[in-house]
Design a protein that fits this description.
SH3 type barrels, Porin, eight-stranded antiparallel barrel, 2 domains, five-stranded antiparallel sheet, mainly beta
Length: 264
């Protein structure tokens, strides 16, 4: 009996010791997927800050360390509440981004666009940058624009709005030039506008994301053609006079846009 009892007690002690050793690991696993969230009443458009709370000596202030190691300190009078949320994806509060997208145009004609944007993301959800595109719709062009985006929520999948505004630079190939109107003399830039709404799908553990959106695009431009012809001088029929005739075509394109893109 004694050897069996001693054997049983020995294993029981080992199991208890193992449970005690693994308990911190279980607790860490449960809290690893969580993060602290400070919800603000009003702070220059900032509504919430995600990170880890830092103890402070002053009980009237709250400090949060975000994932980029920045420390934010707020007065308790500016805080609506403090909570914890499930950490869905590893998003940094700010940083540079590059977005590349392809669009399909539908309207009076059909076409496509390929664009690239480089900019800066701030306060977790807002994007501002500069972009350029190759736009091929009736008349090919090279738009240059400012890009603004905003996510609705700080989640892995979130709706977002976007606005691109700038100038459209005509760049027609030979098959888009009206040659019977003479030579293309001047390409006059116009307005470029692209506005829409979509869904952003963040990749897990980083700030990369896919975007799928639908929107409206407005583009204007002018092409000026020049024709030359000669006539005889009525006062001296032996002399010829060279005449110039110009004709300007103005284009306005209203288009439905379906866009898919990826942001790094």
């Amino acid at each position: 009996m004694y050897p069996k009892t001693a054997y049983f007690c020995n294993w029981r002690n080992k199991v208890i010791a193992m449970i005690l050793l693994l308990q911190p690991a279980f607790a860490l696993a449960q809290t690893k997927g969580m993060e602290d969230v400070v919800y603000l009443k009003s702070h220059f458009g900032l509504t919430e800050v995600h990170g880890t709370l830092i103890p402070l000596k002053d009980s009237n202030e709250v400090a949060v360390r975000t994932r980029d190691k920045s420390v934010w300190v707020f007065s308790r009078s500016d805080i609506e509440k403090i909570g914890r949320e499930k950490l869905i994806f590893q998003s940094k509060p700010k940083g540079w981004y590059n977005s590349t997208s392809v669009s399909a145009y539908f309207g009076g004609d059909k076409g496509y666009q390929i664009q690239s944007v480089v900019g800066y993301r701030f306060l977790y959800r807002y994007y501002a940058g500069l972009g350029a595109a190759l736009d091929n719709y009736t008349i090919r062009s090279l738009p240059v624009f400012a890009d603004f985006q905003g996510n609705w929520f700080l989640t892995k999948t979130t709706p977002f709005n976007y606005l691109d505004a700038g100038i459209s630079n005509p760049w027609p190939p030979d098959n888009q030039i009206l040659k019977y109107n003479g030579n293309l003399g001047k390409k006059i830039p116009g307005v470029y506008l692209n506005i829409g709404i979509g869904q952003r799908l963040h990749c897990l553990h980083n700030d990369h994301s896919w975007q799928f959106s639908i929107g409206y695009s407005l583009e204007t431009m002018k092409l000026r053609y020049v024709q030359t012809y000669t006539s005889f001088d009525p006062a001296d029929p032996s002399q010829r006079i060279t005449n110039l005739y110009t004709q300007t075509y103005q284009y306005t394109f209203n288009r439905l846009v379906l866009k898919v893109g990826f942001t790094l």
